Amino acid sequence: MAINMETAINNMYALKNRGITYSMTGARTGADGTGDCSGTVYDSLRKAGASDAGWVLNTDSLHNWLVQNTFECIATNKEWTAKRGDVVIFGPKGASGGSAGHVVIFISNTQVIHCTYKSASANGIYVDNEAAGCPYSMGWYVYRLKGSSSGSETPNTKKRGDIMLLFKENGKVYFLVGNQYTYVKNPTELSAIKTMMKQAGYDTHEHTNTTQVAYIKRLATEK
């Protein structure tokens, strides 16, 4: 049976709309209201036509299973032009199970959908800009269905164009747009920025993960 990535992505959105929370110890697929990164991607691909592995795969075991299901690894630790439907696994192959790895599905050249833990009050399925959702410092492997068209995405080094997010470092909140970020000086300004972001369909979570913040600051410059 051919795999339909639109079905997989739609299932991720369905889990998001159900409001599942993050857990690595429950069903992991969202079946009991909880999921993790690999479990939700595995379940979504199963519903899209992928084979039954016999168990809910972890991040590390996804590699071989994806290849068995007509995906090919098109990039390893190097830049590529992302397209909707790309599955990206983070963490060293052979040692990326559990919290040592992560997996996302790209829904555009610059955004991903994934199950993640941001904080006790912010966890589950999120649509994030690439900089917020992709821990490149762990290393990465890009899988794409064989025969999938290259799409109309415009090549974009590190794909920075559509990024808009908030991050926090040393108690200060910064607003990133494209490849530049600025310090948000006061709560009134922050509230106005969040209102604008919500209207534009962006996540207003203030990212504090040190790996994510370091990656953002490598890509962007302060103005």
UniProtKB/TrEMBL annotation:
Keyword field contains Protease: yes
UniProt entry keywords in alphabetical sequence: Hydrolase, Protease, Thiol protease
One of the record's GO molecular function terms: cysteine-type peptidase activity
Annotated InterPro entries: NLP_P60_dom, Papain-like_cys_pep_sf, Phage_lysin
Gene Ontology biological process: proteolysis
Domain NlpC/P60: 2-152
Assigned protein family: Belongs to the peptidase C40 family.
UniProt name for this protein: NlpC/P60 domain-containing protein
Gene source species: Enterococcus avium
